[in-house]
Each structure stands twice: as structure tokens, then as C-alpha cells.
């Protein structure tokens, strides 16, 4: 199971640390793993189905919550 959890964390990292779960196209078991990661504190849950890694920039999280995109400058 840890392999799936690591895969989900890697996919969130690939989205600069914050993403809407629906954008990851998770299978049911992966969605349950994501919920376990939130419960364990490895991911932080935000409104509108957004999750982030702990310590991710608040501006990025807000952009994800409101459906915005990030710029190259922010990603750098």
C-alpha cells in the first residue's frame, strides 16, 4: 500500500504541491489512500477538494481552490 501512497504524493508534488483530487483522476482505492494521507498528516485538505503538501505556499493553494493557474514565475 505504501507504493500507492508514494505515487499519490509524487503526483501532488508534480502539481507544485497542491491540486484538486478530481484532477488526479484517482481510482476508488487511490482516493481512499489520499484520504488516509490526509488523516496521517502527509497531505492537508482544503475546500473544494483541494489537497496540498504541508508547508505549500498559501497563494498556490488559493489559486487551486478558485480554479486559477500558476505562472512560470510562481513555479520557479
Please give a structural write-up:
It is globular, with a radius of gyration of 12 Å. It has a three-stranded antiparallel sheet, covered by helices on one side. It is 49% helix and 11% strand. It has one domain (2-75): Arc Repressor Mutant, subunit A. It contains four helices and three strands, in the order αβαββαα.
List the helices and strands and how they pair.
Layout: H1 2-13, E1 18-20, H2 28-40, E2 44-45, E3 50-52, H3 58-65, H4 72-75
Antiparallel strand pairs: 1-3, 2-3
Task: Give a concise summary.
By secondary structure, the chain is mainly α. The chain has helices at 2-13, 28-40, 58-65, 72-75; strands at residues 18-20, 44-45, 50-52. The chain contains four helices and three strands, in the order H-E-H-E-E-H-H.
Class based on secondary structure composition and strand pairing: mainly alpha
Largest sheet: 3 strands, antiparallel
Q: What is the level-2 CATH architecture name?
A: Orthogonal Bundle
As a percent range, the share of helical residues equals 40-55%
Report the portion of residues in β strands. Answer: 5-15%
Question: Major sheet: order of its strands?
Answer: 1-3-2
The succession of helices and strands, N to C, reads HEHEEHH
- CATH-assigned fold name: Arc Repressor Mutant, subunit A
**Judging from the principal axes of the Cα atoms, what is the shape?**
globular
Amino acid at each position: 500500500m505504501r507504493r500507492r501512497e508514494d505515487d499519490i504524493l509524487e503526483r501532488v508534488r508534480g502539481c507544485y504541491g497542491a491540486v484538486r483530487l478530481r484532477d488526479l483522476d484517482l481510482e476508488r482505492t487511490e482516493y481512499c489512500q489520499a484520504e488516509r494521507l490526509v488523516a496521517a498528516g502527509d497531505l492537508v485538505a482544503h475546500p473544494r477538494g483541494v489537497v496540498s503538501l504541508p508547508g505549500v505556499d498559501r497563494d498556490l493553494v488559493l489559486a487551486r481552490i478558485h480554479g486559477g493557474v500558476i505562472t512560470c514565475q510562481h513555479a520557479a
